[in-house]
Design brief:
This protein is mainly β. The protein has strands at residues 8-14, 19-24, 29-33, 39-44, 51-57, 60-65, 69-74, 79-85, 91-96, 100-105, 110-114. A hairpin with a 3-residue loop joins strand 6 and strand 7.
Length: 116
């Protein structure tokens, strides 16, 4: 099992770190090394609600949950970098470009962050 804590609702691949990132119904994010038979190298348990959305860009994981939180984790350092209150309700969609982070969800709004 690449996510033994429960159902996987999102999975993304990071070519930068050669890892598969999964978000599960157990409110956790797991980073699995594709070069080591999908061995889990780090688990993030920072979310307090069900994880609905996931994006990976370079070595960063962007995840949104049912309580409106958007979290940013660093795969390489295994750290939680930011906790952003992105929506009044669940964060269902996340898009990342070189310059923007956009999150939208159950409240019908989208919020945009500009990278410096």
């Amino acid at each position: 099992h690449i996510h033994p804590g429960g159902a996987i609702n999102e999975m993304k691949y990071s070519s930068t770190t050669c890892t598969f990132v999964t978000a599960g119904a157990d409110k956790s994010i797991m980073v699995n090394d594709a070069r080591m038979n999908m061995r889990t190298i780090v688990t993030f348990d920072s979310h307090k609600d069900f994880i609905y959305s996931l994006q990976v860009a370079d070595n960063f994981i962007f995840s949104g949950s049912g309580d409106g939180m958007l979290l940013v984790h660093d795969i390489k350092t295994s750290e939680l970098l930011y906790g952003l209150g992105a929506n009044a309700a669940g964060v269902r969609c996340i898009e990342v470009t070189e310059q923007l982070l956009i999150a939208a969800g159950d409240d019908g709004n989208a919020i945009t962050y500009v990278f410096d």
